[in-house]
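Hey, sorry to bother you again with one of my protein questions. I've been staring at a protein lately and its backbone has me curious. I owe you a coffee for this, so here goes:
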Amino acid sequence: MRSPCPTGTFWNEVVKWININFFDALEALRTTLLLHLLIPIKRFLAELPWLGVVALLAIAGYRLAGLRLALLTATLSFLIAATGQWEKAMVTVYLCGIAVIIASLIGIPIGILAAERERLWRWLQVVIDTLQTLPSFVYLMPAVMLFRVGDFTALIAIVAYAVAPAIRYTALGIQRVDPKVVEAGRAMGCTPFQILTKIKLKLALPELMLGLNQTIMFALSMLVITALVGTRDLGQEVYIALTKADIGRGIVAGLAVAFIAIIADRLISAGATRLRERME
């Protein structure tokens, strides 16, 4: 019988070829990152006292936007602990945090490179739009085929899904910098590197922080899907609640994910607002 998807065989052969020729290298990369990055950070966050974390979030909220944000962050983080989801929330934070850092380290340089290259940016927009419209489950399939199940596979899928906003907001932020300011820098004898670091990136920093915000939101949304590859976070709680038709369990876990997203969103938005105020 003829395959209904002729290109499916091609992609199967690509993954098979990678597994045959690069299995040892991929396995070494997976093991190294697990032993020296993922597991140590996971253990560190798991050992943090919830009361201390709540206090730190409250202090951060107060420093950035005053008492109202301090109360919001403290209340939401306390509710996560009070509902018994703290341990799984820390696993969620660990996976999301590492994925966001890696996605930013990949996306920001690409965005900087594409910002002043119109042809590259046009092609990159097509790639970004494609990445953002692909079903979330698509990201899991090649990751599972190459790295099997576990936290590392989830990390790869999250990074692939969350890198798009990091690229887009970086490029747009740099493109929106006033050309007159850039020309003034050139007239003063600034080198291209100085113009990039001291003018463009500095003025685009609020936009970069909003890009960071969106990267976190994308990572959290993908975390729920990665429960299918064996993670032990809040996403798994939502998945188990769905399979058992346990509405209460699903709502509690879903609200915990929402609280993490709200805390991150409010803190980053407050930081971006303060940066704008300092630049005006």
Remarks:
- The chain has a mean pLDDT of 84.
- The two ends are 67 Å apart (CA to CA).
